[in-house]
Structures are given as structure tokens and as C-alpha cells.
Amino acid sequence: MKTYSITRRIVAVVLLSELVLTGAMSVAAVLYARHQQLLSFEVMLRGRADSVFGAVGDAGDKEDTLALDTYSLDLPKNDVYEVRQDHGPLLGRSNNWTGIPANLEIARDNSFSLRINGHRYRGIVLHGMRSVDSLEPGGGIQYKVTVFYASPTRPIERALRQSEKFFGFIDFLLLLGTGFVLVLLLRRAAQPLRTLAASAALVNAQSLTFAAPEEAYRVEELAPLASALDTAMHGIERAFTQQRDFLSDAAHELKTAVTLVKSSLQLLGSRERTIREYADGLDLCLADCARMEELVMKMLTLARLERLTAIGAQPARTLIRECVADVVTQVESLAQLRGVRMDLVAPELLAVHLPTDDLECLMKNLLLNAVQHSSASGSIRIRIFETEEENVCITVTDVGEGIAPEHLSRIFDRFYRGDASRSRNTGGTGLGLAICKAIVEAYHGSINIESRVAEGTTVTVHLPKASEVSAAKEQAIAR
Amino acid sequence: MRVLIIEDEKRLAENLAKALREGPGYAVDLAEDGEIGLQLARDGVYDLVLLDLMLPVLNGMQVLSRLRRYGERTPVLVLTAQTGKASVIELLNAGADDYLGKPFDLGELLARIKALIRRGKGVARPEIHVGNLTVDTLSMAVLREGRSIELSPMEYRILEYLMHHPGIVVSKKELLEHLYDYNWERHSNVIEAHISNLRRKLDLGFEEPAVETLRGRGYRLIASQREHRL
Fold first, then answer.
1. What are A51-70's pLDDT values in tens digits?
2. Which of A89, A437, B16, B137 has its CA 20 to 30 A from that of A453?
């Protein structure tokens, strides 16, 4: 993969456009200077040609011819000229010229250019009239005179080349200066990006704590990235912490369970005992093993539900009344043992988006909890109904000891036992309600608990409703 | 000796209590959560506290640090599922005297408990010598001038406690507190009966009494008997 630098790109684009701009301006300036130079050159040529013309006068001879007075002329030594009388003789010519070449092309504005000894010359043609003896009666004789005057263009070219050089140099300085400033500015602008990258680089498997630096949030373009990183890292950190806490809690529970079985067996073998004692001890060990098994199964259930939440649950539908009635029957014997009555009210046809197994597991946990915490000869009310928001609502209400407010907020936490006597003594693993919550959340529902000490507890579950017709059909097919 | 077990797993706590009662013959009390445990431990009648780390209400770490803040010097052995270096260092620095990772071996736990109690009383070896008396706390054998003496478990416990406090007057109340847990009916005349049996067995065939009774104050193991060390 080829990498590229945004800074370098921006600098290149800015410098390139600047180059084009200054180049165009320089060309325009040079062209304008050239125009000005040519204009003043023209004026100069005309002036000099005029002075040559002025030097044409009466030759002072009898024929009243014209002559060129070269003595009074003071002209640059590189300039050339020639003066002709129309249809007459050559009146004069500068010494450094051999004369007008035969093929001289004269433009419409009376200008011409030519080469003399390899140098470029530019010249003009001046037509004029000269009269001889104009004071005499009859007005004298009029002569048409033509002056050809040319001057080398080298000084103009030199001046133009110099101004070109000057502009080029200025352009170069400008580009260099702006390039330097641009790089500095861009470096400063990219500083928050580097800070953000540096703080992100500190994150590793051991330390997931991350907070985007304040300066990243001050940059409008960087703020979305910073906040996205913050959110993502917080989520990951929370998930990791939860996972780690769960693992450590699970390890504690499992190690305690193993310790229990091990100590029971060691105690049993520590001395000679009666057969009765051995039998009782083994029974206890078996019961402890059963609890350990339950713990492991529940932990596996939680792991499965977690995976389900992550990958999305398969769609399934269950007729709720039938399923809950089954669970009530299963729990009945325990309830009778404690003298607790259960009372279920549910509509005949109402289905939820939940597989039967998970719904059963959810209801069993809720009902067992209710039975265990009911006061003797109390009653448990189970109500199932459809809400206005097209959800199915299940409430399980017991009359019993209730839960203290300080434990209520953490009651769904894994392995949370607010009160030792509450779950350990009733054989709980501290996972029942955590499993309920995991099931409900895996299927996009919600679970809430309300309780008053010495009055009782109500658990409310909301689950998405499914079409009862297809649910009935599916169950019929399953049978 | 009397041990407090603070452990919320009831079955495990019962197993440990049974092992301690059956083995070294200690009196054992149980606490199911950190708060109750802390209250009991502050009574100062325990020779050792066995503390689980994950407890309801107050966790083991809180119990430990509060106990030490109150100035309680009872040895504390922590039972923990976390045996990572950091957590062990944290534990010991918070005032724990020893720790044992779950799942542990019952035999090792008992040995560590005995060692901690011994250390707590300033004794390094499992055998205790006072005057011409020797008590082996491992085999629970009692010797006076090399002659073996058979004692009942309660008599042994009283003697062991007195051996840890030689020459010091130990009140009846103290003996009751350290040798009986809360589940026992405590009557001072029970102690008196055990003491008189103990004295009869110890002094059989010896001129000088091993244990002195100070009326209204308590009992004292006479430490200044003619030394007869091994």
C-alpha cells in the first residue's frame, strides 16, 4: 500500500497554483514593460529621425539642391540612417551603413526591422517636404525627402531580460516563503492529530483506558474522530471489565464449589467413621456436586446468551400461555411444599419472539425466585397481557420479604448476593436473575424489578410480540 | 482455642468448623457476612480469624482493614480464590498473617491455623514446655517428667490454653471465652469441674501442684517448677 502525506499534497497544490498565478502575472508584467519600452523606443526613433530631417537643408549651390548637414547631427554611434530625395539623389547616410537593403519591407505604420552585422535593428521611415529659397518670389522649390532611421534593439532586449529575471526572482522568493510558512502552519494544524494518535498508541491489552485529548475536540475536523474513538474505547473497556469481573467471580464460585467438595471428602476421610456417617457425608458431597453442576450449567447458559446477543438471535415464536402453564406445573410441587399458591391469568392466543426453551428458562427462574421469597401460604400472581405498544408484558408478583432498596439496583448483576441468607441458603447460585436479564436482552425485551421490604416483589418483563397465527402453525408442525 | 470463620458459603463453613472441632478440638463460631464477622472478630475472644474474601455486605478486604484499624491483633488467615501476586501482596499488606488459595487441602489449612495460633502466642515449635510439663499440640499428647497423662478433649484444651499463658492468672471468663463457641451452654461450674479433673490427673504422683487456683481470680499454671527440660 502506497502511503501519502496530506501535508505534502496541500503544499504541492498551493505552491502549484501560486506558481501558475505568479507566472501569469510576471508574463503580463513583462509584456506590459515590453510594450512601454517599444513605445518609448518609437518616440525616440521619431525624435532622432526628426533631427536628421532637420539637418536637411539648402545646399547653397546654384541648382538649389538639397544637402544633409551631418556636422550638426549628434546621434548615437550605433544608429544608422539614410536620407533620400524622392526621385532624386541620396542626400546622406551614416558612415556605418551600407544603405537600405533592396528587399526592405516597410510596415504600414512606417516601421521596419532589419539586421546589420548580425544585430537586430528597428527603424522608421519619415516622409517630409523641404523647400529651398522659400523667401524668394514664387515660393521656391519643394522637395520630397524620406528619412530612414534605425536604432539597435539590444538595449530594450537587455532591459526586458533584466525585468524578466527580476520577476522570476521575486516569484521564486514568494514560492519559497509561502511554502515555508505553509509547512509550518500545517505542522501546527496537525499537532492535535499527532496528540490523538499518541494517546491512542498508549492503549494496549493491559490498559484499555483511553480519553481523547482536549485539543482534539477543539478541532472541528478531528472532533468526530475523537468522540468516535472515545465511545468505542469506552465500550470495549466496559466489556473487558465486565468480562474480567465475571471471570474472576466465576473463578471464585467454581473454586469455592471445588473447595467444598474437596473439604467434605477430606473431612470424611480424616478419621474412622460409622457407616451411617459415611453415607450421610457422601450424600452431602453428591448434593454439593449437583450444585456445582448447576453453577457450571448456568454459566454456560450465560455464555450462550451472550453469544446470541452478539450475533443476533434466530427468529422463533412461542405461544406464551401454553409455555408458562407448563412451567407453573413444574414449579407447583415446590410451591405446595412451601404452601404457596400460584395464579396465572393469560390470554389464549398471544405469542412472543422467543424460542420455547429460553422462555421456559426465563419463567422458571422468575417463578422459583418468587416461590423461594414468598412468605408461607402467600400467593404468586402471574399476569400476561398485550400492551398498547404491541408488546407482551409479563408480571410476576409475590407477597413476601421483599428486597432492600440498596440491593435492588444490583440485583441483576452476576453473582450478586445482597444478603447471604437470601440466596446461598436457598441454594441459589447468584446467576438466576442475571440469566433472566440476559435472555430478555438477547431477544430485545426489557426486565424491571420493584420491591418493598416486608411486602413483596414484582418483576415486569416486556417482550416483542409475534404473530400468534404463525406461532400456532409452527408449534403444530413441531408436534 | 477459639476460631472465627467468616465465610458465606454455609456448607464450606460447616465443613471447616467440623474439621477444627474434630481435629485440634477448637471452639468455632461462624459468620455469614462481613458485617457480622467484623462485629464478632472485634470481641477479641478469638485466637484466629479465618476470612473469606468474597463476602456479602462487607468484603473480606474491608473486614481485614477495619479490624486492623481498630487495633485488633488476632491472627487472620485469608481464604482466597485469587492467588495472583498483586492480590496476595495487597492482602498481606492490609494485615493478613497468611493466606490459602482455594481449592485448598484441609490438612494444610489445619497446619497453617495451628502454626498461626502458635506464633500468635509467641511459640515457635509445636511442642510447648512449661516447667516439667510438655504438651505436643500435634498429637495432643501430654507428658509430665516424661510420664504420659491421658486427658479428655476439654481438659486438654484447658491445659493447652494455660500452657500458652504460663505463670499468668487466667480467669474463668477468659477460659470460657476462648474455649467455647456461642452455641455452647456456658456455665462456670462446668469449667470448675474440668479444672478439678485436670488437676487430679496432672498431679497424680507428684508433690507439687501443676495448676494453682486463686480464689475469685482464676487459675495459674505454675511455671517455676523445678526445670526438667528435654
1. 988 888 877 777 777 888 88
2. A437
Cell numbers 497468611: residue: B98
Helical (H) or strand (E) element with B37: helix B34-41
Mutate to test the interface with A, among B6, B7, B10, B12 (most CBs of A within 10 A): B12
If you ran DSSP here, which 8-state letter would residue B13 be given? Answer: H
> CA B80, CA A32: separation in Å to the nearest integer?
94
| A-chain residue closest to B81, CA distance | A252
Task: Look up residue B82 and give its three cell numbers.
Answer: 485469587
Chain B contacts to A (CB-CB under 8 A): 8-12, 15-16, 18-19, 22-23, 32-33, 53-57, 79, 81-82, 101-107
pLDDT tens profile B133-174: 888 888 888 988 888 888 888 899 899 889 888 888 998 888
Provide the edge-to-edge strand list for the sheet that holds B48-52.
Answer: B27-31, B2-6, B48-52, B76-80, B98-101
Nearest by CB: A260 against B11, B22, B101: B11
CA distance A145 to A82: 11
Nearest to A419 among B56, B79, B103 (CB): B56
**Is a pLDDT exceeding 60 seen at residue B49?**
yes
Compute the distance between CA of residue A333 and CA of residue A281 in angstroms, rounded to an integer.
27
- Determine, for residues B8 and A248 on separate chains, whether the beta-carbon distance falls below 8 Å: no
Q: How many CB atoms lie within 10 A of CB A188?
A: 9
3-state secondary structure chain A: CCCCCHHHHHHHHHHHHHHHHHHHHHHHHHHHHHHHHHHHHHHHHHHHHHHHHHCEEECCCCCCCEEECCCCCCCCCCCEEEEEECCCCEEEECCCCCCCCCCCCCCCCCEEEEEECCEEEEEEEEEEEEEECCCCCCCCEEEEEEEEEEEECHHHHHHHHHHHHHHHHHHHHHHHHHHHHHHHHHHHHCHHHHHHHHHHHCCCCCCCCCCCCHHHHHCCCCHHHHHHHHHHHHHHHHHHHHHHHHHHHHHHHHHHHHHHHHHHHHHHHCCCCCHHHHHHHHHHHHHHHHHHHHHHHHHHHHHHHHHHHHHCCCCCCEEHHHHHHHHHHHHHHHHHHCCCEEEEECCCCCEECCCHHHHHHHHHHHHHHHHHHECCCCEEEEEEEECCCCEEEEEEEEEECCCCHHHHCCCCCCCCCCCHHHHCCCCCCCCHHHHHHHHHHHCCCEEEEEEECCCEEEEEEEEEEECHHHHHHHHHHHC
Model's pTM, two decimal places?
Answer: 0.59
A425 contact B CB<8A: yes
- Assign residue A166 a region (left: φ > 0; alpha: ψ between -120 and 50; beta: otherwise): alpha
Taking an 8 Å cut-off on Cβ atoms, the answer to whether A256 and B81 are in contact is: yes
- In terms of phi and psi (left: phi > 0; alpha: psi -120 to 50; beta: otherwise), the region of A114 is beta
Contact predicate B85/B43, CB 8 Å = no
**Which residues in chain A are closer than 8 Å to B102, comparing Cβ atoms?**
252, 255-256, 258-259
Name the DSSP letter for residue B170.
B
CA distance B229 to chain A (A): 33
